[in-house]
Amino acid sequence: DDHFDIGWKDLSKVDFEEKLNEEFKTMIAYPIFHPSIKKLDGQKIQIQGYVIPLEETGDETIVVLSAFPFTSCFFCGGAGPESVMDIQLKKRKKRFKQDAMVTFRGKLRLNDSDLDYLNYILDDAEVYAE
Length: 130
Description:
Helix content: under 10%
Radius of gyration: 14 Å
Shape: globular
């Protein structure tokens, strides 16, 4: 088995630096990843969390995995951006139920600059267990 089993605690080692974003003319918190996280960039990992489907975007390939259920997650409940991950599914799948507990496998990509994505992205993601 060549996937590192990662927990949200492993991913919480991030500092944030407020910098002015010229395009949006606003202060944005950019992540500064701990070396222990940086070495996971591009590695195959598996991670378990709560699924937050973004069906309103009309694209079911976009799924967000959260360390916390929807009501207390980053988007609604004030958890930090290090507690969510963009899941880029390898292939379209049935709709996920909100707050379903799912383990995904894929390749971790760290993102500290592209504001269209979260700080953590899981590429070529597949459901490992649900």
